[in-house]
């Protein structure tokens, strides 16, 4: 009897081993798979050795090619690294879906419907192409300059990465609600968004790959952290929605929430529009807009500190084109090509350490000649497109705004797509580019930024929802 049981168990384990380690025909090459965990252990060790997942994908691509097939837990995943394959990933309709796993659905009531067209239309109506955006940016710039002037009255030493979060959140809040946050509300929102940025990587957490762990060790696998942070942000948005419903009327400043509530009154449950989806959409706007813009500005000013000659050249351009009589606006971008190059080069360096939002194959398809089964998750590493010589970047790790200039004119390479391309192109591109340009140009017009004597900043990067630099200080003086 015992012999039969042992034999059956052995057969079962052998079948499990075979089934769980068998790769689909013509699936992209990659590390060997083990039963249950796939190649999670090898990826973990690589991550530990390299420091960032971006560098892990570079290592894997060097060994297996620009498309690498892995399995983490039960989930088939493909890392896309090379420039050609990266563009194919972004442009192919077969890969236009977002993941529908626990990582995606546990943040938004277990559901996921997308209303991107409505969001884009309303954001354009609210201000992306109107003077209201310039007014918002100008007001926030006055506040940033005021904060810096107060610091200069003391010792002039300021934590640069602390300059921007509150003002970026205010901009996003105005676009959503039509009004600014109170100080108490801003403190509440800022704490929640900081927790999000610091604790939630775009590429997923342990419970995402092994969902059963949320029942066994929800703290260790990150599930409780993930859900609780999203609950805090969603509670803030929900409070705003409730308030706007109560005071809704013609006197109300229009924001995205106002427009969505009007749409709900029209459709009355006959479509996918719902208050739950309103909260989920606002959550996406906040998390993506806040993290990307703040971290991009951190990269810009870190490199300006490390390259004072670049800062001086940008200031000379601002002085010759605008002078000191008025603040820069986004309309000045065509006339300030070198400042634009500084922004682009910083975006290249941050994007090259990032991943695009994960995609899901909606049907059996191919990528770079390999078979991609339906449901496969595709992780697009931008490193091979923005930080690799094979993509046409000479000395890609070097900060060099001149690479975007040719004969004194702005020259943007075809593979410079920091906001993505195709149907999944970032909806906040217009606002992000305007924010970053106006803040950089305005601060360089007004101040000099130098390294704190005896304490130069280090180029230390941190993984998160988007890459960031570690907090650093600068010595700031009026020009």
Can you tell me the residue ranges where pLDDT is under 50 for at least 5 consecutive residues?
none
If you compute it from the alpha carbons, what radius of gyration comes out, rounded to the nearest whole angstrom?
24 Å
Task: Say how many strands there are.
Answer: 13
Mean pLDDT: 84
- What structural category do the secondary elements indicate? alpha+beta
Shape: globular
Q: Helical region count?
A: 18
Helix content: 40-55%
Strand content: 5-15%
Overall description:
The protein is of the alpha+beta class. The chain is built from 18 helices and 13 strands. Helix content is 52%, strand content 10%. It has a 4-stranded mixed beta sheet with strand order 1-2-7-4. The radius of gyration is 24 Å and the shape is globular. The model has no long low-confidence stretch (mean pLDDT 84).
């Amino acid at each position: 009897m015992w012999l039969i049981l042992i034999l059956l168990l052995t057969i079962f384990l052998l079948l499990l081993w075979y089934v769980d380690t068998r790769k689909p025909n013509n699936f992209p090459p990659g590390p060997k798979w083990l039963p249950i965990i796939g190649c999670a252990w090898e990826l973990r060790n690589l991550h530990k050795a390299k420091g960032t997942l971006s560098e892990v994908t570079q290592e894997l691509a060097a060994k297996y090619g620009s498309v690498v097939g892995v399995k983490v837990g039960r989930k088939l995943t493909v890392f896309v690294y090379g420039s050609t394959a990266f563009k194919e990933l972004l442009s192919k309709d077969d890969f236009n879906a977002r993941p529908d796993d626990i990582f995606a659905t546990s943040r938004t009531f277990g559901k996921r419907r997308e209303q991107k067209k409505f969001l884009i239309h309303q954001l354009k109506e609210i201000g992306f192409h109107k003077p209201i955006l310039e007014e918002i940016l100008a007001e926030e710039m006055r506040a940033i300059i005021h904060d810096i002037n107060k610091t200069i009255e003391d010792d002039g030493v300021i934590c640069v990465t602390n300059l921007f979060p509150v003002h970026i959140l205010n901009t996003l809040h105005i676009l959503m609600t039509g009004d600014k946050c109170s100080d108490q509300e801003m403190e509440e929102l800022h704490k929640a968004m900081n927790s999000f940025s610091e604790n939630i990587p775009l590429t997923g957490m342990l419970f995402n790959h092994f969902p059963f762990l949320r029942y066994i060790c929800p703290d260790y696998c990150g599930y409780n952290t993930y859900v609780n942070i999203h609950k805090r942000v969603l509670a803030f948005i929900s409070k705003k929605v409730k308030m706007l419903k109560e005071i809704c009327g013609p006197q109300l400043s229009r924001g995205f929430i106002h427009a969505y509530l009007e749409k709900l009154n029209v459709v009355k449950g006959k479509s996918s529009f719902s208050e739950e989806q309103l909260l989920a959409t606002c959550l996406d706007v906040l998390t993506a807009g806040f993290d990307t813009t703040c971290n991009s500005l951190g990269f810009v000013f870190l490199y300006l500190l490390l390259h004072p000659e670049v800062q001086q050249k940008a200031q000379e351009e601002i002085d010759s084109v605008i002078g000191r009589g008025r603040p820069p606006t986004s309309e000045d971008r065509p006339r300030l090509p070198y400042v634009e190059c500084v922004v682009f080069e910083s975006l290249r360096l941050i994007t090259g350490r990032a991943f695009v939002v994960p995609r899901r194959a909606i049907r059996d398809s191919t990528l770079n000649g390999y078979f991609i089964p339906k449901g496969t998750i595709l992780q697009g590493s931008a490193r091979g497109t923005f930080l690799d010589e094979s993509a046409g970047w000479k000395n890609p790790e070097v900060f060099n705004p001149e690479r975007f200039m040719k004969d004194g004119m702005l020259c943007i390479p075809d593979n410079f797509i920091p906001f993505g391309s195709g149907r999944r192109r970032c909806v906040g591109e217009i606002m992000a580019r305007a924010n970053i340009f106006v803040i950089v140009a305005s601060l360089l017009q007004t101040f000099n930024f130098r390294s704190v004597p005896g304490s130069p900043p280090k180029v230390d990067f941190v993984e998160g929802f988007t890459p960031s630099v570690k907090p650093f200080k600068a010595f700031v003086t009026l020009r």
